[in-house]
Amino acid sequence: MATGMIVKALSGFYYVQTEEGIIQCRGRGNFRLRQIKPLVGDQVEFEAENVTDGYILNVFERKNELIRPPIANVDQALLVFSALEPDFSPLLLDKFLVHIEANDLTPVIIISKVDLLDSRALTIIESYKKLYEEIGYTVLLTSTLQSDGIDEIVPFLNEKVSVVAGQSGVGKSSLLNSLQPELNIETNEISSHLGRGKHTTRHVELLRIGGGLVADTPGFSSLDFSNLEAEDLSACFPEMDEQASNCKFRGCTHTSEPKCAVKAALEQGEISESRMKHYLQFLEEIKNQKKRYDK
Fold first, then answer.
1. Which fold has domain 2-61?
2. Which residues bind Zn(2+) (predicted)?
3. 230-294 homologous superfamily
4. How high is the mean pLDDT in each 10-residue block of the chain (295 residues)?
5. Does the annotation place 203 within a ligand binding site?
6. Residue 247 annotated as binding site
7. Is 29 annotated as a binding residue?
8. Residue 259 is assigned to a ligand binding site
9. 112 annotated among ligand-binding-site residues
10. Could you tell me which of 287, 206, 248 has the C-alpha nearest to residue 43?
11. Residue 115 annotated as part of some ligand binding site
């Protein structure tokens, strides 16, 4: 028996990366009865007579698991947003960050097309960069020129399993092509009717880029809060989570409770008004979602 990582799943076959190369495997016959579904990113135990005829015998415990894309053991998410066309959306960024925090991933925020901005708009983007860096996030600015800013991204990929996510139509596949041109990942033009990009990938695959592995399928295509409870939301805002233990009431939602440390930090400027506004918006969304489910 040998061990390896599943790097591609396609048509019932699992392609397992080992030190000797890639072995094509099928899942063990009783996996379905045991409700075990191997995922790309899984560390597995397998046996194989040759490179095209292997069987996965065991799937090792996962540290995390994403639903969209279906992938396991992810270390980080590259969040790709554009400064312009489409305009940068801090609301959408915060929504992505909540999902990333909830899945225990490390985000790397990438804001592209900064070379298209005038000085006033660039100042606004730089203020957002400062805000998110003060929270503790990594923020990288890139331009429309493929080489400008791309080299900064490469060290963050080293020895990591990454997914790419972010605004629709910002060129996530183009970013991967810039990082490793020989990949030639297929991209589509932005759909003007839908106002969002289309993605052509039909299976999940981990591609070796910059010393790490990157999923070629955009992550977090669904951004609802169905798996998040209202009382857990503030833990997905690191600056709020840091203050929450000082609140008078356990399970404080930082809305109307007295002696709330988060609201005090907001008044002192330690938490940004825009982040608090988004937190309250997401909290309302979660509560409304639960009401619909409870009917």
1. OB fold (Dihydrolipoamide Acetyltransferase, E2P) (2.40.50)
2. 247, 252, 254, 260
3. Probable gtpase engc; domain 3 (1.10.40.50)
4. 94 93 91 88 95 94 89 94 92 95 94 92 97 97 69 90 86 76 56 38 80 84 81 95 93 92 96 97 89 61
5. no
6. yes
7. no
8. no
9. yes
10. 206
11. yes
